[in-house]
Amino acid sequence: MNRYIIGLSAIMLILIAGCIQTPEVGLANGAQSTGSTSGSSAVSDCRVVYVEEPYTVEECRNITYTERVCQEKELEYTAGPIEKTDLCTADGGCTGKELLGECLYQCSGAMKRCRMNITNNDPKLTGTWVVGATFSYGGAAFVKNPQTLIIKPGETRTFDFEQLYQLDQKYNIASCSVYVMHPTLADECIDVVNTDRVCENVTKTRIVQEEICD
Questions:
Q1: 3-state secondary structure of 134
Q2: pTM score, two decimals?
Q3: How many domains does the chain have?
Q4: Measured distance CA(159)–CA(82) in Å, rounded
Q5: What are the pLDDT digits (tens) for 68-120?
Q6: Cβ count within 10 A of residue 181
Q7: Do 148 and 122 have their domain in common?
Q8: Do 140 and 201 fall within a single domain?
Q9: 141 and 85 assigned to the same domain
Q10: Residue range 120-173, pLDDT digits in tens
Q11: Residue 81 and residue 61 share a domain
């Protein structure tokens, strides 16, 4: 009886062991199991680098410059009295002498000389004066070519005109007029300091971080 019980117990233990054991699963196409139950995953390799990056900014600055500004100015002047001289130019001992007294009646030819001084009254500016003259005798007029002189500030210069003519039997002496033909203009200039603001786009670089992954 005891042997029967021991034998039955041994058979049951064998059956239980067989049920607990995990059966081996076959691989397709006869491949052998490597014993690994999970696949391998790739690991990324990343790093931070520093690079130069261009960028644009607007930069402004003040520029100072000098500009010469000019305007025309009429110069003031003083015209002196007309100095007149009458000389005998022909006949006898009066030649070269003034037409006075007996020489007026002995001369057949004469010369009229008219002079006028011009003074530039401007304290700073130099100007150019144009002066003309007209001689009159016996109903006729002789217009002389204008004279042009440059006169510095405060300077006085003389305009000198002459006219030869024949004396008639009435012994009249020629007359003259001397005149400034037009106003004298000169540029009066001053230096003016101006400031302008100038802006422009300027390209610069800066260091930035970048992440690079292989």
A1: strand
A2: 0.61
A3: 2
A4: 10
A5: 999 999 999 999 999 999 999 987 788 999 988 888 888 889 999 999 999 99
A6: 12
A7: yes
A8: no
A9: yes
A10: 999 999 999 999 999 999 888 999 999 999 999 999 999 999 999 998 777 789
A11: no
